[in-house]
Amino acid sequence: MLQNIRVVLVNTSHPGNIGGAARAMKNMGLSRLVLVQPLDFPAADARARASGADDVLDAAVVVETLEQALAGCSLAIGTSARERSIPWPLLDPRECAGKAVERAAGGEEIALVFGREHAGLTNDELQRCHFHVHIPSNPDFSSLNLAAAVQVLAYEVRMAWLAVQGEPSKAVKDDACELATLDEMERFYDHLEQTLVGIGFLDPEKPKHLMARLRRLYGRSSVERTEMSILRGILTETQKVARGEPHKKKD
To answer: Which domain holds residue 233?
Structure first.
């Protein structure tokens, strides 16, 4: 699916930005880079900034016109940093990624088009795109570096792709990091309440929402099963001390 999405850079003036864009692409699983009349490419600066994404640079296609870059695409989305005189369907990065991945999943060719560092895409170039995408950056400092703009959209594309694939966006935890279940948490809260009453910290006649606040505290913490075992062990030993039982030191 991701192989159906190409990144198009138009008339890039600094080769370092091409390398930075290639790195951003590879980070997020994109591999198809098309360059429209780059001022300086190939170049050592591009390879240096790619930081290992040499395969993306080596496979980059250089063309003379945007029309050539968009050949075979059924959807083109152009980046725009400012309002244009001609209104155009506008997407935010997340909407852009969702639409791109949805269409790419059906086998269509998709292009994400980025303009020049100093001026972006011309009105004529933007009108070759079906949609415009605007990254809602700080209006007081809205100009994004080209590679940074590629990174934003590439990240959103990857998140949309993960959602479509049914894959988690976070690293899958192993068994040792499995979270405690709700019923295990309930047994912990009962144990905690009994312990707090036993040591005189909680007056069951005047609880003052203490347990509710502790539930909220632990509920925010995503307690793991191994951590739950530690907590329950602490409570058990605390209860023994409160009852005056001899304390057995751990080896």
So the answer is: 182-243
